[in-house]
Amino acid sequence: MDMPDPERLPASDRGGEADIAVHWPEEPLVPPPRNLRRPPHIAEPGLRERFRRDRFPAYFDEYAQLLTWNRRWDRTLDSDHPPFYRWFVGGTLNASVNCVDRHLPGRAGAPALIFVPEAEADPPQIVTYRELFDRVNALAAYLARGLGAVAGERVTLHLPMTPDLPVAMLACARLGLPHSVVFSGFSGEACGLRIADSRSRFLITMDGYFRNGRWVDLREAADRAYRVAHAQGHAPERVLVLPRTPGHWRSERPLRAPVEADLEAELAGYRSAREPARELASDHPLFLMYTSGTTGRPKGVQHNLGGYLAYAAGTTYYYQDLDPEDVYWCMADIGWITGHTYIVYGPLALGAQVVLYEGIPTYPDPERPWRIAERLGVTVFHTSPTAIRQLRRLAPNGPGRHRTSFRLLTSVGEPIEPETWHWYHAEVGRGAASVLDTWWQTETGGILCSTAPGIDPMKPGSAGPGVLGIHPQIRDEDGRIIPPGSHRAGALVIPHPWPGQMATIWGDPRRYVETYFQRFNTSPESTDWNDWPYLTGDGAVQAADGYFRILGRIDDVINVAGHRLGAKEIESACLTVPGIAEAAVVPVNDPVKGRCPEAYVSLRSGTDPSPELADRVTRAIESRIGKIARPTHVWIVADMPKTRSGKILRRVLSAISNGRPPGDLTTLANPEVVAEIERRVRSKD
Ligand code: PRX
């Protein structure tokens, strides 16, 4: 049995997720399915041999060769200035050409996107590669000729899950405008901060969208975003608003010229325009994706064109195992990295047929996904453990009632516990599909750990070994490698660069070095990449067979239903409420969402505790970040457990929230507060 020992984790005093990792015993291996329709791409003879460690970095040329280049690269990897890397140096290309134009000969009439509106009465709408080409060109022509956008300028997209979002991303990519997609569930304020940080010239948004049967207004968010960005010193020049339904405005709010414009009307003169794709250097920035980390300020993870797109295409080819014949459905939102890589860039680069679903999986009932999959003939399905848990809980026999034909089922975003894994495998996949637990991050661009579909034995609860060309390690507090099979947990690191790796943090290269590389770098002057292992922020344990089990974050990130939130960001939101003196936010175990944030606040003198005050804290969090960050509970406490130097010991609060003993209290200046907090939380007082 391979039980990790989380006590050895190099965790901070904050009480990271890995501290409360659910420990299931090691499961026996499940053999891969037999009778495959065709051999998986990854079974190609000699492939794994070619990706042998001693062929680094040349093996990644194979990924780049999946793309169409204007000019071939001269050098696979430039690592002269670690940890800043350039991939496929000297090469030039364009992402929209790779995802659209190059599929026109032969596949113009094939579906690129199959849009499924949330309302079940609205039939799926097919966007062919030809139509995608037309729409991308029209928007690119308008941005370039109508607004004078030039390569390098940023565009923020606050758009829901309709074809307009991939169209807008690819139009930006066509011109070399790095896009910054803000998840549509994020508040206007969160959007405004991202506009200001990226200094975006334009914001593209929508009047609203449907979610769980209700209309969600996005115009209000756009207003707020504009004002917040303005207050930060960088208002966008134009706010371009699309109607959710062409020709039909649902918003009452008038458009404020000259800043706001109806993008549908603006595009009228460009419908048949053709806009030449810019020939861009491989290290041109393709997009920014804001994500949470240890500070209150989200960071703009920057991904560059050639390396990212090659890695997206390569991992989609070998791990989602896609062919143009596949109907592929990834139920994530494009507003997160999973959607960027495994809805838009990877699958479209391969010319696949991509399902885009507007709504939530449980609307109008928890069998909706299986009806969609049956109707569209989905062969490869990708989702999160939270969605699987929800669907299972609400309709355990749901999948069996539909004629689905999945050959590959993948999971991402959080650990998937064996019980949920087995249901996914047996009920959704009828025991005949491979199940992949794919581990990666916003920063990594694509999958880093997974079993190989169709050929590797699968281990429920374990993400599997490093993928092709990736050789992860577990390190202890002192940076020493913990060997596989030693049953000791540690920090998961990637000891070498890879093409999907982020290029930097937008506008803050120093933070990039400090956040991801300083921890295990022993010689800051070194120009050898071997001295710059990448710190993932996750705790993990590696079994003797090389499979990694991810235990959760060892830093201040809380993964809620596969969505990444910063504890510090939530704490900052709490502190905006008058009367709140201190705030501490900790992860608490949740049977469906994996983890949820729970907030502890203390009050300024003269402020009285009340349920209304706790409500105000919750509302502040929702308006600063979004409803996804809503805490399960706001505990108003007399004082926080603190060290003698005044630091709040969050690990004590995390233990209390999770019903564990609070642990060693000898470093506390005020141990007496702990018992009182414990009593309140236990009695839900
Ligand atoms: O803690 C890990 C968890 O999600 C974090 C990354 O979040 P984000 O950047 O939003 O990207 C999510 C989608 C790639 C990781 O640091 N995580 C992701 N996949 C898994 C996972 N935890 C366990 N198992 C996974 N398969």
End-to-end C-alpha gap: 40 Å
Arithmetic mean of pLDDT: 95
Number of helices: 19
What structural class do you assign from the helix and strand content?
A: alpha/beta
Strand order of the largest sheet: 12-11-8-6-7-14-15-23
* Oligomeric state of shown chains: single chain
State the helical fraction: 25-40%
CATH class of the domain at 92-360 equals Alpha Beta
Based on Cα principal axes, name the global outline: globular
The assigned CATH architecture of the domain at 92-360 is 3-Layer(aba) Sandwich
Q: What would CATH call the homologous superfamily of the domain at 92-360?
A: ANL, N-terminal domain
Compact description:
27% of the residues lie in helices and 22% in strands. It has 19 helices and 30 strands.
Write up what this structure looks like:
This protein has 685 residues and is an alpha/beta fold. Among the domains are: 269 residues, Rossmann fold (3-Layer(aba) Sandwich), CATH 3.40.50; 123 residues, ANL, C-terminal domain (GMP Synthetase, Chain A, domain 3). Helix content is 27%, strand content 22%. It is built from 19 helices and 30 strands. The chain has an eight-stranded mixed β-sheet with strand order 12-11-8-6-7-14-15-23, sandwiched between helices. A seven-stranded mixed β-sheet has the order 5-4-17-16-18-19-20, with helices on both faces. The protein has a four-stranded antiparallel β-sheet with strand order 21-22-24-25, with no helix packed on it. A hairpin with a 3-residue loop joins strand 28 and strand 29. Helix 18 runs parallel beside helix 19. The longest helix is centred in the first third of the chain and has 18 residues. The radius of gyration is 24 Å and the shape is globular. The mean pLDDT is 95. The structure holds adenosine-5'-monophosphate-propyl ester. The site of adenosine-5'-monophosphate-propyl ester has 23 residues, from helix 11, strand 20, strand 24 and strand 25. Adenosine-5'-monophosphate-propyl ester binds next to helix 11, strand 20, strand 24 and strand 25.
